[in-house]
Hints:
By secondary structure, this protein is mostly beta strands. Helices cover about 10% and strands about 65% of the residues. The protein has a single domain (about 1-290), classed as Porin (Beta Barrel), CATH 2.40.160.40. The protein contains 2 helices and 13 strands. Strands 1-2-3-4-6-7-8-9-10-11-12-13 form a 12-stranded antiparallel barrel. β5 and β6 (about 135-145) form a beta hairpin. The radius of gyration is 19 Å and the shape is globular.
Amino acid sequence: MKNKLRLLLLPALVLCVAVNAAYAEEYEDETYGWSAVLKKAGLEISSTQVKNSKEYKDSPNAELSGDSETVTKGILDFSMIEQQEKYKWENNLFAEYGKTKLRPKDGPNVTNETADKILLSTDFAYKTWHYWDAYVGPFGNLAYQTEFDKNEDAPRTKIARGMTGLKLFDGEYIESLYAAVVGEYDFTYKHDKTAKLAYELGLKGRYPLREGVNFNVDTYFRDYVKYSAYNARDFEYEYSLKGNMMVDVYGGFKMGPYIQYFRAQDRGSSKYGSSTIIGVEASYGGKWGL
């Protein structure tokens, strides 16, 4: 319980900084209609430190079962967004894949997967109120999560997820801040399909350090409270935090250092698993009206 409270305090601390920074900003009218947004098409080069990976060697989650290593990873984050006076509708494709060859001192060369995720989602949020420079309203989200390859002896991840709650969004500094109830149907394991209930808190924000240099944060905490059946590899909770400092290079090209932390504990392990990634990221993004 103490560990969960510490994880909840991290996004709360980041939130306080972001909210105080956003307080002085004035609201600006949106351009209504559809737009295509390439949030990121990027390449990351990083060094990864994984703790207690032996506990999670059979987990379908690659972030907990990998080894400490140097890895190259590709990322795509693309959205089709409709903005209207009363609502925002966003359809998103997020994909990442990282693979490297390990050369351990006590064994032969090994090819290892360290990141593998495909997430298709649709998110609908009502613009019910204005709060400082942002909108606030109820939202609903439907998503399907899978991966390119299965992880060693584990099957390929297959999760259908739905959530609903309250969200503050589209502020100058706070892109999204939400609290939601989450329902999942996990059919990763063919003979152990599981329905789950959870709550989730999340934050995406940005802060300009100076002209052409921005600090970005993306974090969430999901705590599972009910399961339809017992599966030792189902998570009790998961926490993700990523921060980067991106420098505008030219046009939509950006580059900068980042740090990423992921932590979770499953129902069959006595210890949590975690991975910490520090690296350099180069990416391109843009927005086009339709």
